[in-house]
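User: Can you predict the 3D structure of Phosphatidylserine decarboxylase proenzyme? Sequence below.
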Amino acid sequence: MKEKLYQSLIELTNGRWSSSLLRRFALSPASKRIVPSFAKQYKINVEEMDKPLEAYESLHDFFTRNLKSGARRFDGEIDMIASPVDAVLEDMGSIQEDATFQVKGKVYSIEEMLGGKKEAERYLGGQYMVLYLSPSHYHRIHSPVDGTVIRKQTLGSKSYPVNRWGMTLGKSPLSKNYREITEIEYEGGRLALIKVGAMFVNTIERTHTGDTLHKGEEIGYFSFGSTVVLLFEKGRFAAAQVKTPVPVWAGEILGTYR
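Assistant: Sure. Here are the predicted structure tokens for Phosphatidylserine decarboxylase proenzyme:
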């Protein structure tokens, strides 16, 4: 009953008009007035930002902020996979041979998430990671490896919440929401980096051009809360031994490839 009520309320408020209104406000000069209270509410570390609070011209400008040089480090050995974002590592585990994995009691289809059976086959028996970005996080996305972009695709039109309520009660947001897929070929094989939009604002901006990626290089940014899903091929990735959920920083080591 609670799940049906939640889903009904989300459907009622998740239309184009509400998304458009919120985006217009966030981009407007009027939203600048709430930037200080937003930063305080979400306990954002203003010391690492590349400019002072008063220099941000809108809430969107602040939300997509850059950090000072060196605030995030992408060091480590070449065989180490770095977190592409500041986030909470909500879940990780094995992708089943039927091309599914489970998060918060929801079964997700890799075939649906990637847009086809052929695209999903490569990751059968592999590993997945779900990285949730709240409004408090730095929302720039970086490459987790040195590699070459071999596929880009945009799928989905929904924008269900991707927070814990959304993941628990929503309609499979990871595989139904608006999302951008980037598949990267690297020394350890191939991985899929899936950028999932969130409620109200399905904005995922690409900032990287070309096909060559260097670990730590910026590839884009989110507007408002979002999620990144990483998929790894079978036998190619060994995850760090952590208990989820756990906070991670962009550049932090998530595991190694074989």
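Residues 135 and 224 are 6 Å apart (CA to CA). The mean pLDDT is 85.
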